[in-house]
Amino acid sequence: MRACAGQGIRGYARLVTAAWDPAMAGVLRLPSGRLVRGRALLRPVPPGPEPGFGLYLLGREPPAVRWEARWLPWPDFGLPADPAAAQEALREAWARAFSERVEVACAGGHGRTGTALACLAVLDGVPSREAIRYVRAHYAARAVETPGQRRFVARFPVGQ
Predict the structure, then answer these.
(1) How many domains are there within the chain?
(2) Which range of residues forms the domain containing residue 137?
(3) What is the pLDDT of residues 38-76, one digit of tens each?
(4) Phi then psi for 84, rounded to 5 degrees?
(5) What angle separates helix 83-96 from helix 111-123, to the nearest 10 degrees?
(6) Is the pLDDT score of 7 beyond 70?
(7) Which of 44-48, 84-88, 116-120 has the lowest mean pLDDT?
(8) Has residue 15 been placed in a domain?
(9) 157 φ, ψ to 5°?
(10) Domain for residue 160, yes or no?
(11) Under 8 Å CB-to-CB from 150, ≥6 apart: which residues?
(12) d(CA 67, CA 84)
């Protein structure tokens, strides 16, 4: 995992004066009230405010964006190349969603993005056995696509 080329200073967090609009497509409200936008990178950036931070889950480095971003190597229909780095990145995204507009995205916006959002739900207090159902109900019915991705969520550690 590393900061995407051409991005803002790593570790610098811009405070958000307004959160995501919960009615926007792709916005998941976690039980704590944190709002995280999931989306497909194959589609244009949605209209409206930009994220303060993006976590991009792709097999190759994503194109540069105007906001701070991190790339987590994660092949399509697979699992993160480095599970420890994935845990770190997901914990960072969850923490930053408290005060920033955070988006999580992969190419199609379902498998890897859904898996990551389910892990964020676990961090937010949703039991791991219910996290996929939560994300499918509140984000996308097709979220989390493979048995391996389901196991990744089920085994995602809650503690630090």
Answers:
(1) 1
(2) 2-9+20-154
(3) 999 999 989 999 999 999 999 999 989 999 999 999 999
(4) -65, -40
(5) 70
(6) no
(7) 44-48
(8) no
(9) -75, 135
(10) no
(11) 132, 144
(12) 24
